[in-house]
Structures are given as C-alpha cells and as structure tokens.
C-alpha cells in the first residue's frame, strides 16, 4: 500500500487485549466527513444524477396509487423480511402475513416474531420523526423495538454495548475476526461524532451523506445485535426526514442481500483503504435499482386493482359495491376470514360469506387452510408482487 492509500484510511487500528491476554486489533473510525474530501468524478456524478431522478419518479409513482399508505404497509413488510433474512432468519413474507392473520402452523419459522418486530421498529421510528430528528436517541429507541422479546433480547435492547463485539464466521475468536469495531469506551464519542455530522449543514448531496452515514454506523457497530437492521432502517429514515421521499418506500435490503459479498467488501475497503467513492458508487447503484423495482411494483398494483375491479363490476351485480370495499381492504390485509369480510363491508355473515366464495370462484382469493371451518383466504396475486428475493 503506497503512502497516498495509507493517508486515505478511514480510521486506525487500536491494539487491544482481553482478560485472557489475547491481543486483537479494533478499528477506530475517523469522524465524518472523509478527509481528504470525496473525489466526485464523472462516474459518481452520473450515478448521483440518476439516483436523484429515479427517486423522484418513485415518489411520484406512489402518489398515483389510490391508497398509497396501503402500498407502504406491504412494502415495509417485505423490507422487514429481507433485512431480517440477511441476519439469518428463515421467515418469508408469507409467514409474516400468516402471523398477522394468526394462521398457526407447526412448520412456521419461530423467528417470524423478529420480522414482525422489524415492522414495529420501522413504524415507531417514522412516527417519532414528527417530533424527534434522526439522532442517537432515536436509534436507541428503534433498537429497543427491534429486539423486544426475541432472540437477542438479552443483549441490552436500546443500550449501546459495554463489551467488545466482532464480525466473522461462526465460532471465530477476536483475533481471527474479519472485522473488529471500536472498543466499548469509544462508542459514545463515535456516535456523538456521527450525530454531529447528521445535524451539520453541508454542501454534500444528501444521497452521498446518507451513504456515508450508513457505512459509518456499520463500522461503529454500537450494539451487541441488530446493527445491520438498524443501519438499513437509517437510510429510509434520513430520506423521509429530509423529505426526499414523502413515503418510506426505498429499502436497500434486497440489493444488499443480492450483492452481499460486494457489500461487505466495499465497507471493509473503506476502512482499510479509504475508498469512500467506490462504496458510494455501489450504494447509488442500489438506490437506482431498488427505486426502479418499486416504481414497477406500483405500476403493476394499479393494473391489478383495475383488472379485479372490472371483474367485480361485471360479475357481482348488486353486491358489486361490497365487492369493491372488500377488494380495497385486501390491500391492507391480504389474508382474511369471513369475519374480516363482514367488518370490511358491514354485511351480515351470509352475504359476506357469499362474497368471499364468489371472489374465490373468480380467482381473486384463494383458500389457504384446506379446512371446512375457520377458513382463511389470501389475495395471492397482490402478495406475489412483493414476494421475491
């Protein structure tokens, strides 16, 4: 490594020891912004312009939906699944929807509660943004929601760590870890510097600032568990706080999962070589790819809703109005019972049951229990738009 590369390190390694006397190197990041300054070359500028453009298009496409908040609810569930899968959970989007609808199955992964917690953490953070800026306090609140009563709940939810953690293969020791974040006594100053950067006005384009914050947070790794999920949530919170997005519909977990090794390699190269620009190019490519996917999903939802509204209008005669009410309800709750249909339409049991049966005959709903009683029905065509990755 030449002197120029050494000067561009994003921090320095500190020699530490554990009580047994084992030595290890912990990384101490320099405060943001990077020094020397970012080199915004033509490639980075082009990616930044593209990302700004597709984000604007995404924001506009969500507003064209009849019920944009319903899309957001489903999209948050998808993000919860993908982000949790990166951390090793096995639950799928189907499992989460089934859990919300209380469809109990002995084959359902036990870690589905972790994904449900992620949805709660996202919703908590978005609600708090109305009164509290993105800050260490908010980050700790999100973390507490994330780990409440699940695997890792013994690892001080909402509290920064007071012991050393590390990243590496299962069973590896500190000295053999792929990466060791700052020692516990440095976490407070590191987070304070990060918060200062968040609240400092600068001429740095927002997307670049968000990319820097995510990488720095993952490097600090302030919690004993849940750092990756909190770091990914931060991306969306920052974009919503700065009103780049009116709705929380940009989630990079799909992209990070798809390119997992490159993601880890880019972050480690920042620490070792100060290659912030390469990390930001990777980050912006993710923003572009995921924004295009979300915009396409919104377009397909519009087409699906119009097609099913037409089927209902042509086949339900006098019950068409209730059919449309139930269809709209399915965008909130894609797995339902006849009782749910009653509540959504205000109809008594028999008309609601007839409505559900007719929707099933026409291929809008699918019965998923196989039982004659306590049946549950899924809006499969809608769920399938999100159930990838």
UniProtKB/TrEMBL annotation:
Keywords: ATP-binding, Nucleotide-binding, Nucleotidyltransferase, Transferase. Residues 134-285 form the Fido domain. InterPro entries: Fic/DOC_N (IPR025758), Fido (IPR003812), Fido-like_dom_sf (IPR036597), Fido_containing (IPR040198), SoFic-like (IPR026287). GO terms for molecular function: ATP binding; nucleotidyltransferase activity. The keyword Transferase applies. It comes from the Bacteria. It holds the Pfam family Fic_N. This is Adenosine monophosphate-protein transferase SoFic.
């Amino acid at each position: 490594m030449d002197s120029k590369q050494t000067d561009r390190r994003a921090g320095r390694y500190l020699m530490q020891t554990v009580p047994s006397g084992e030595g290890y190197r912990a990384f101490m990041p320099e405060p943001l912004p990077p020094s020397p300054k970012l080199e915004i070359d033509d490639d980075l500028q082009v990616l930044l312009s593209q990302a700004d453009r597709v984000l604007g298009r995404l924001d506009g496409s969500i507003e064209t939906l009849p019920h944009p908040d319903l899309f957001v609810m489903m999209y948050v569930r998808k993000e919860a699944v993908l982000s949790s899968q990166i951390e090793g959970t096995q639950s799928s989007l189907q499992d989460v929807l089934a859990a919300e609808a209380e469809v109990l199955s002995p084959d359902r992964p036990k870690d589905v509660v972790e994904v449900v917690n992620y949805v709660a953490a996202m919703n908590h953070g978005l609600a708090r943004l109305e009164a509290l800026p993105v800050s260490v306090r908010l980050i700790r609140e999100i973390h507490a929601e994330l780990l409440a009563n699940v695997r890792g709940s013994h690892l001080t939810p909402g509290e920064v760590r007071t012991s050393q953690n590390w990243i590496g293969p299962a069973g590896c020791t500190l000295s053999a870890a792929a990466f060791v974040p700052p020692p516990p006594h440095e976490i407070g100053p590191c987070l304070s510097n990060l918060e200062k950067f968040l609240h400092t006005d600068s001429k740095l384009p927002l997307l670049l600032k968000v990319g820097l914050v995510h990488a720095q947070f993952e490097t600090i790794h302030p919690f004993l568990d849940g750092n990756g999920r909190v770091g990914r949530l931060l991306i969306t919170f920052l974009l919503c706080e700065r009103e780049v997005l009116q709705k929380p519909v940009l989630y990079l977990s799909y992209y990070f999962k798809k390119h997992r090794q490159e993601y880890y390699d880019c972050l480690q190269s920042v620490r070792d070589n100060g290659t912030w620009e390469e990390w930001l190019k990777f980050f912006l490519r993710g923003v572009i790819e995921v924004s295009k996917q979300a915009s396409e999903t919104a377009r397909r939802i519009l087409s699906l809703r119009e097609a099913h509204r037409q089927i209902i209008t042509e086949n339900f005669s006098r019950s068409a109005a209730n059919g449309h009410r139930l269809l709209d309800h399915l965008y909130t709750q894609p797995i339902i019972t006849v009782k749910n249909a009653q509540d959504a339409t205000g109809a008594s049991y028999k008309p609601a049951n007839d409505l559900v049966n007719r929707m099933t005959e026409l291929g809008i709903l699918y019965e998923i229990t196989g039982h004659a009683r306590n049946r549950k029905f899924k809006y499969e065509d809608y769920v399938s738009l999100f159930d990838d990755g």
